[in-house]
Design goal:
Blueprint lengths: L4 E7 L13 E6 L2 E7 L3 H7 L7 E5 L11 H10 L6 E5 L2 H13 L7 E5 L6 E5 L3 E8 L5 E8 L8 H7 L3 H8 L4 E2 L5 E2 L13 E5 L9 H4 L4 E5 L7 H7 L4 H11 L3 E5 L9 H10 L3 E3 L5 E3 L1
Parallel strand pairs: 3-4, 4-5, 5-6, 12-13, 13-14, 14-15
Antiparallel strand pairs: 1-2, 1-16, 2-3, 7-8, 8-9, 9-12, 10-11
Length: about 300
């Protein structure tokens, strides 16, 4: 059975909150780890609304320093402090983010009582930011009005499991099981060699999630997200407003779908909706005309990846 790999949309709008939609924020859960991706204004309020345990967040990734992607951060960091947090928090974002946090803490007279480990992102073609036994995270450059990075989250799949009926049939010992899992063939008492694959269940496919926040349409992006399980790509405007997308260095829903199609992803989520759209069906319709397996990023909704 697969471990948890699940996305919850916290905020899906662009710069201005409207129609009960808030600026960008998402929670990615990988097994028991909660990862916050961007932190627009109102994020901690929305986390409470959707009954997400804030104290369980141990990783935060900020894509860029436009306010609708990080204005909720200082409030969240302060709330962690007030609630008595002592566990380490790892924060990834543009180099200037640390300076902003330090300045705010300086003038509000606060000292964090928990370790805040900051790691600056870069505009390098690809960079590994973090890896543990459960997942790894890399970044890649997007093209927006200021330096902006996308993030790619990949789960790590453990060793293949032994078929239970084989354990009983061959009376496998613990050492036998460990050897077979390591890829060694099994030799029976009468000298017969049986390939290890005979004993093993099919390996689970490692799932992946690519997050592309604010960016203009860039075909070159495809090589960084090729074949991912799920792609989130901003879709601020409909095709009729493509001139606005070009001017503001954003994307249309049709352009987002083209990226998904060309990258061969399994699924596309579109978000970062302009506040001009109360009804999002036009954006969804345009995207699905190009890439059928497209859904809207709806706040409060969970997506199993």
């Amino acid at each position: 059975m697969n471990q948890i790999f699940e996305l919850t949309i916290i905020g899906s709008n662009s710069a201005i909150s409207t129609f009960d939609r808030f600026p960008t924020a998402q929670i990615l859960q990988i097994q028991n780890q909660l990862i916050l991706i961007d932190c627009g204004e109102g994020t901690q309020f929305r986390l409470d609304t959707f009954k997400i345990k804030k104290s369980a967040i141990n990783f935060i990734f900020i894509s860029h320093l436009h306010g609708d992607h990080y204005y909720g951060l200082i409030g969240l960091l302060t709330s962690f402090n007030l609630s008595g947090r002592t566990t380490e928090l790892r924060l990834f974002g543009p180099p200037g983010l640390k300076e902003i946090i330090d300045l705010q803490m300086k003038y509000n007279g606060a000292t964090l009582q928990y370790p805040l480990v900051f790691q600056a992102t870069s505009m390098n073609p690809t960079a590994t930011l973090f890896a543990n036994e459960m997942f790894e995270v890399s970044s890649f450059p997007l093209q927006h009005r200021i330096d902006t990075t996308g993030f790619l989250f990949r789960e790590k799949v453990g060793q293949r499991k032994i078929r239970k009926e084989k354990i009983e049939a061959f009376q496998l010992s613990v050492d036998d099981i460990l050897s077979i899992k390591a890829g060694e063939d099994f030799i029976t008492s009468d000298g017969q060699t049986i390939p290890s694959a005979t004993f093993l269940l099919e390996a689970s496919k490692a799932r992946s999630y690519a997050y592309c926040s604010d960016t203009k349409y860039v075909e070159d992006l495809v090589k960084n997200i090729e074949g991912v399980t799920c792609l989130y790509h901003e879709a601020t405007f409909e095709t009729e407003k493509e001139h606005l997308a070009e001017k503001t260095m954003h994307s249309t829903s049709k352009q987002a779908a083209s990226i998904a199609k060309n990258a061969g992803v399994d699924r596309l989520l579109i978000g970062h909706f302009s506040s001009r759209y109360k009804d999002l069906s036009i954006l969804l319709g345009e995207a699905r005309a190009v890439f059928k397996n497209t859904d809207l990023a709806i706040e409060g909704q969970k997506y199993e990846l």
